[in-house]
Amino acid sequence: MKLELTAQQSADQQAFREFSDTSIAPFADEWDRDERFPREVIERMARQGYLGAVVPQASGGSGSDMISFGLLHEEIGRGCSSARSLLTVHSMATFALHRWGSQQLKRRYLAELIDGSLLGAFGLSEPNVGSDARSIETTAHMEGDHYRLNGCKKWVTFGQLADLFLVFAQHEGKSIALLLERTTPGLTVVPISGMLGTRAAMLAELHLENCAVPVANRIGGPGFGLAAIATSALDIGRYSVACGSVGLAQACLEASVRYSSERHQFGVPLKEHQLIRQLISQMLTNIKAARLLCMQAGYLKDSGHPNTVMETWIAKYFASTTAMKAALDAVQIHGANGCSAAYPVQRYMRDAKIAEIIEGSTQLQEVTIADYAYEQQLAHHQPAGANHD
Fold first, then answer.
1. What is the pLDDT of residues 115-153, one digit of tens each?
2. Fewest CB within 10 angstroms: 220, 254, 283, 385, which?
3. pTM of the predicted structure, to 2 decimals
4. Which top CATH class is 7-114?
5. 191-226 pLDDT, tens digit each
6. Is 272 a catalytic residue?
7. Where are the CATH 2.40.110.10 domain residues in the chain?
8. Which is catalytic among the residues 75, 205, 356, 359?
9. In sequence order, which residues have a C-beta less than 8 Å from that of residue 185 and are 6 or more positions away?
């Protein structure tokens, strides 16, 4: 097996890194303090084709393969997790529209999502519903050619800025997915501030009071909301967070190598102390392993392999826990400076904790991965001709 990027992927990776180094990373601490993300940066990302990376060229997007898509999210995540989270949720909404939306909906919204005229967001979680997505309480009742939406969505990433929300609701006992415009009467957007990490992700609550949404704005049929649309969009989101976590861990490594080379203690640079070298070696090894898991998941997506969803779960689990450990060690290497806003590693630590929670918490992933392990074990040891009933 050849584990090597193509010439185009390598060129893309270099371009992503340069963009992150010049337009993202230098401003990330400021955005974190202000809990704001500039519109002009979103416009700049759109001009680079990043907002349409998940859409094929034939449909107007930049048509990125999934490994390059992952490299984009790794490099943006290395610069700022909040910027990466914008790409995450926008890509989820755009992907769902392109894959499951009607031609009418695509003509209406897709081009503007790709060029950044519209910013997309994803509304699944609720005040009483997190990992148990099947228990959503938001309702949709049919009235003529409209649905009436009532309920509340919480933790909507970039909900403060988004123009178009992919929201999920219950209709006659079945889940449905709807595209909800920000200007819809009855929709109130309530900013959420003071979060632990990804503070520039501009989270919001969506309060839905008799919001009239055209039936034509439904994506997929009744019952498809969670079973197909949310699941496939969340797979894209999970892959984004996995790759972004690799970038975050890489940022921790780069900061730690730089600081331990410059800082002196007991008459020598920190890097000369064996325990510091141990932390650096573990950091580097885990990052390389996490990156390979993400590349494998991306390769399987490109090849249409049936295991891609589970391999993405595994990649996200390992990459997010790797980012958390790398961030903790980076803070430790920086000592008291690591707890100061003057150094970015404290932001990395806060952002890494968020990565362990979103798009499937560490504990939920452990349950899911363990179930998969048992299923695989049983399948491999099923006697030939055994009765499966």
1. 999 999 999 999 998 877 788 999 999 999 999 999 999
2. 385
3. 0.94
4. mainly alpha
5. 999 999 999 999 999 999 999 999 999 998 888 888
6. no
7. 120-221
8. 359
9. 211, 212
